[in-house]
Amino acid sequence: MSGFPDDIPFFDEDEPSANPPAQQKPAGSGSGSGIAARAMAARGGAASARYLDALNPEQRLAVETTEGPVLVLAGAGTGKTRVLTTRIAHILATGRAYPSQILAVTFTNKAAREMKERIGTLVGEAVEGMPWLGTFHSIGVKILRRHAELAGLKSSFTILDTDDQIRLIKQIIQAEGLDDKRWPARQFAQMIDGWKNKGLAPKEIAEGDARAFANGRGRELYAAYQERLKSLNAVDFGDLLCLPIRIFRDNPDVLAEYHRKFRYILVDEYQDTNTAQYMWLRLLAQRPKSAGEAPLNICCVGDDDQSIYGWRGAEVDNILRFEKDFPGAKVIRLERNYRSTAHILGAASHLIAHNEGRLGKTLFTDKAQPDEAKVKVHASWDSEEEARAIGEEVEALQSKRHALNDMAILVRASFQMREFEDRFVTLGVNYRVIGGPRFYERQEIRDALAYFRIVSQEADDLAFERIINVPKRGLGDASLRQVHDVARARQVPLLQAARDLAGTEEMKPKPRSALRTLTENIDRWQDLLDKTSHTELAETILEESGYTDMWKNDRSPEAPGRLENLKELIRSMEDYESLRGFLEHVSLVMDAERHEEMDAISLMTLHSAKGLEFETVFLPGWEEGLFPHQRALDEGGRSGLEEERRLAYVGLTRAKKNLHLWFASNRRIHGLWQSTIPSRFLDELPEAHVDVADEGSSYGGYGQGHIGRPNPYGKSRFDNAEVFSNTYSTPGWQRAQKNRSDATARNWGTRSGHQVERIGYGETDSGYGAGRGSVKGRVIEGELVAKSVSESPSAFKLGDRVFHMKFGNGNVAAIDGNKLTIDFDKAGQKRVLDSFVQPA
DNA sequence: CGAGACCTAATTTTT
DNA sequence: TTAGGTCTCG
């Protein structure tokens, strides 16, 4: 959140002269690029460098095609990261560029970190000399700090995270006299993000969009928000992309500087770039032809089939269009997969082939063994049984010496996790949840950081607001309002206003003295900034402010964990030089590394699984409405469906050896039990690579009544009646869709229990293959998008005798629209949708 | 200001 | 179902 300009490196500090011609050796010419020198040495004079020997021919081509635009379509598990890192090492080793002349962008800090490490390994040492390897955002900050004044900022600007952003927007909505309930700040924040993802300034947004919020005042609010940011000397995440773009556009000389600087541009996960990132890259990549410059050396690596972030602005089109955008581009496909068995690859390839908008690829493996397991599809009665059965499977594997670390359960939506957590707790199986709220997003961490911010940055109004009454010190809305008024009247930050106010008679004695205590504390801490070590200061602040006491006195079950987190926070500060340095880090890296070594099964969403791999993967919940998710269908139409399918593809390709898919016939959604039908994706799997598991076990229950009962939605080879007969019938999903009801709920249970671990995030490697395909066509197709549950009143009456597939017979006890409360003879009282019961 | 009632909405997530 | 937010009362 806090920024500091002190480490703005000056340009070209390690470049003896502006442009080393290709092939010229930079090493030896003085200082800086020891890395290049070492890389050269590592190369050992042989005609072919050793690092190239580890590559297959396609990978090698991707590494050695250094000049001109290159698109590497790297299929899942084809060694994408290896190519990227080796390519950089190669560029350095052959003296084509200095480290500082290579721009390498990733999406996540983790990916950036990993690349740095791996380049370091290749080249012999940690890569400190790659100043321009980082996330889009971190590089954006770097550029923006250097040219802040061109964007109307001071280079010490603060970076707001989503939380700050929303609070700020809320204030603006209120200040404009709008009802912040009718026009939720959260929603508007998302709209702003959407605009910024497209690189649009307030005046550039579409009329329709602008009208969509707050009775047509969207544009006005957006502009007001930007104004407010400027006056706070703050930016949000979107600005880190948009402002550099604007600077480049408005200041050709600045852009030219970067053109001169970067000889090679590399982009990871290109399929995830949004429009703003695309523009940013184009600006940097397109050197004016007139200057007789060297060719445009941009290399984008990605996989159109793993594009799963369309909903947050990623444009698959960017990768699909690459050859048009960069004429003469070479496209290199990596299709040799080093991860999965032939069955898994076969299943995944067949599934993804149902998508139309793709460049196409064919993953293959040459390590196929005769005895490999096919992909297994399992049916279960309901989600509980699903969890129970997977739990059994996990234990069985465990007893066969499989490490839990090699297994993962990947779900479509996080509410699905709960049942698995419950199950693993009862079984005593260690598990770790990956994803979910991050360390730095936790309340106690954010509170603590707000204290640090206000101490290190006097003018950080948002931080001040956050802590003014945390812990409670009797400074509520009324007091805050007063402080605000003074601040506005005098044009000073809130903290200063508070100081002034505390010295006057304006306030009632109680709040006044509370305020005075607070400001005096802050003054004292500020004074300690340069006198104490920052970790010590941090502890002092948390102690003296009463913040730690607040949690010590809190008897809620989370309190001890929060105190633990605070300690962890202080511990992690030790890695930084100063409070400011730490805060700068935190604003960009909302992610704390964690390094639990216990053996545990991983539990996460499919989205968080991208880039990871496991020996054994369980994919539960393959049911229409849940996966593909109804909402993706409703909102995204055909392209929504295709993205869901890509998500399925990502899931399948995470598995190395064993892959289990599950669907349940009944699932509780929003507290209501609903019957479900198997996902269409199951029917899109190739018979040759798939086995339908013959569970036999608990499958059934009241279900006898169900087996053989006609599926009201259409047929699938996974319909219960046919599960064991392996019939291969083509589905009638369109019809099925029609009666689908909303699926999905959300829960973020705070499981307690010994062996649990929650991790910020993860990623490993991904990749791709080749093929062909048409591109356009994100048109909504009615038949796929049909909608949910009718709200018409139920045909049942109180006291009616009814039959339900899951619960058997019972009497209608209450009716609420189409929701029935039924007293079942055996199962007790349940709420179900009326469409799932019939007169008994 | 805080506790408890009441209402509402409910994928996916990085920076 | 349930979590989160808002609203009301003491």
TrEMBL record:
Binding-site positions, ATP: 74-81
EC number(s) given by UniProt: 5.6.2.4
UniProt keyword annotation of Transmembrane helix present: no
Pfam families: UvrD-helicase (PF00580), UvrD_C (PF13361)
Domain UvrD-like helicase C-terminal: 342-611
A GO CC term attached to the entry: cytosol
UniProt biased composition (Polar residues): 742-753
One GO BP: recombinational repair
InterPro entries per UniProt: DExx_box_DNA_helicase_dom_sf, DNA_helicase_UvrD-like_C, DNA_helicase_UvrD/REP, P-loop_NTPase, UvrD-like_ATP-bd
Protein family membership: Belongs to the helicase family. UvrD subfamily.
The protein's name in its UniProt record: DNA 3'-5' helicase
Lineage of producing organism: Bacteria, Pseudomonadati, Pseudomonadota, Alphaproteobacteria, Hyphomicrobiales
